[in-house]
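(Structure overview)
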Amino acid sequence: MTDENKPPIVSRREWLAAVDTLRVREKAHTREGDAIAAARRRLPMTEVDPSTALAGRSGAVPLIDVFEGRTQLFVSYHMWHDGQTAASQCEGCTFFTGQVRELAYLHQRDVTFAVFCQGPYEESDRYRRFMGWDMPWYSVPPESHERLVAGRHFGMKACYLREGERVYETYWTTGRGVEPMAPSYGILDMTVHGRQETWEDSPPGWPQPYETLGQQFRKDGRPTAQWARIAAGHDDDLHGGQPGTGGSGCCS
C-alpha cells in the first residue's frame, strides 16, 4: 500500500465528523435490519414430522427430542465429505459452526442450538472432538434428508418451533445469509482492511489475498481453525492412524 492509496490523515475533530456522517448510514442499516427481522417473525410456517430420525451419541433420536425441552431450535446443517480426512472437510461449515460456542444466551431465550451433520455420526463426531466443539451434534441419516433438507443443501441454517408434540420450520437461509453466525466477519468489517477478499470495494492497493471459493477459510491446505489444534497436539486423523505419520492419517 503506497501513501497515495491510504485514507487521508486529518485532525481528530475532522475524523470524528467523518465517523458521525457514516454513523447516520449505519443506523439506517440497523433499522432496516430490524424491519427485516420483524417480517421474518411473521413468515408462515410449514410442519415437519417430529419423529424424523437423527443419530446422536446414544443412537437414534427423534427430531422433537433435539429441542431438549425448549420451544425453539436453530440448526446448522454441516456439510460432510464422506471418507475424507480432516484436512479435506468443509472449510466454510468449519468456519461458521466453530464460532458458535457460548450457548447460555440462546438457552436463556428458550432456543436450542444444534448441528445436523451430513456424514455418519461416529466419523463426523470424531471431527467435532478434534475441533474442540461441545455443541449438540447429530448425524442426518439418508432416509431423513428429504424431510429435513427437502431439495436444499447442507450448509444451510434453519429455525424450528415446537408447540406441544408438533414441530414447524419457520425460516431457513444459506450463502451470506448465515453470516450472523460468524462474529469474525463482523469484526473484520469494522477494520480498515475489511475482510481482505477480492469482491470487496476497497481503495486501490488494499490487501485482498482471499478469493471466495473456500480459500478464505483455508490456510496451507486445510481449514484455518485446525492449525491451532494441531499445534496443541490434537489428533486430526479421522481414520484411526497417528497424526504426522502419513499413511492413513491426514497430517503429512
Q: What stands out?
A: The mean pLDDT is 92.
